[in-house]
Fold this sequence. Notes:
Elements: H1 3-12, E1 16-22, H2 27-36, E2 43-46, E3 49-54, H3 56-65, E4 69-80, H4 84-92, E5 107-113, H5 120-137, E6 152-158, E7 161-167, H6 189-199, E8 206-209, H7 216-225, H8 230-233, H9 246-254, E9 266-271, H10 274-285, H11 290-293, E10 301-305, E11 318-322, H12 334-348, E12 353-358, H13 361-367, E13 373-379, E14 382-388
Helix pairs in contact: 3-9, 4-5, 6-7, 12-13
Amino acid sequence: MDLSKRIKRHITAIPHDFRAVCHPGFESTCAAEFTLLGVNIPLQTSFGAVDFTAKLEDAWKLIAFSRTCTRIVMRIGSFTAENFGRLEKKALEIPWELYYPQSPLPQIKVTCKKSRLYHSDAIAERLQKIVYSALEERGLSPSENATLQPQTLFVHFENDRCTLSVDLAGEPLYKRGFDRHVEEAPVRDTFAASMLLEGGILRSKKLFDPMSGSGTFSSEAALVKAHANLWKTRSYALQNAPSFRSAAWNFMVNHTSGLELLPEFQIFTSDLSSKAVLTVEYNLKSSAAAPYLQDLASDALQIYQADFFDLPKPSENSLLALNPPYGKRITADIPKLYREIGKKIRSDFSNSNIALIVPGKEAENALNMTPKRRMESINGGIDVSVFFW
């Protein structure tokens, strides 16, 4: 049977097990986004992940439109291996040519936990020889598109069980496809998107991003408002896989709307720092992201210098997103700052939806507010809580 028929029978025609990696604490947010995108399948959440069984094209849709998950992988094998002989025997049984092209060759990343095979470099070296030899024997043609990314093979050992997963994205999905200037300690795009979605952006008329820093909250909102979904701004490793079909991909992306904000939605972006305002201006109006936002109405995105504590009371049906300065690289009196944030919220934003990063008990005590919901997560390597009202 030729390769194309085998790919159809074993890859595109049947369901597979997938794992979407997301920010810890936001698993239910990620799952809710998948449902909003029209992928109506059973979803199972675990720490930092959403697992599901679906056709390959469903995973393509999530790769192209999800703004909350950081990676999606497809499971291709799982077996016990207490020694290298067993590992090599099981690896030789996998039809690698169904998953990888000969060029660019896949990268192999290994993690080991509580297993007799614990030397990740030795595991990667043996698998690399097997995978590369299998592809070479098939005489697969090298890719003519040098811009496409290699697909990573993730190898996870735990309690002597080896799980093999094919990466679909290539670069992590928090990389939106364009460079930008950053201020200190920026929040990742996927983290910002998760906060906005959980905070109620889809039902809000206005977003206030008053400690904007690099403007990540505003950038995410503006891209959604402009229907600049990820498939428009970047490429993926899956586009170089043997199973990729450009006609099916084009039909899918052109018949999926993505997330929808209210027609009257506006973004108000500000910062006390004039340097931060210049950074946001560059990122949203001059950088590589600008072409995707050029069709926004003139009043849809407003950027200005202001102190959050001087902002007037907003109208109802607004969302306030805050990532105040904290962490080792930033000097700030955290208790004082969060005490003032709490006062400002109580006085002027009591009728707004709020999403606020709180970095520890000291800040939480100073804030002196009990959230309606809280999520424990990690941002920039720091354990944080995210409060929602």
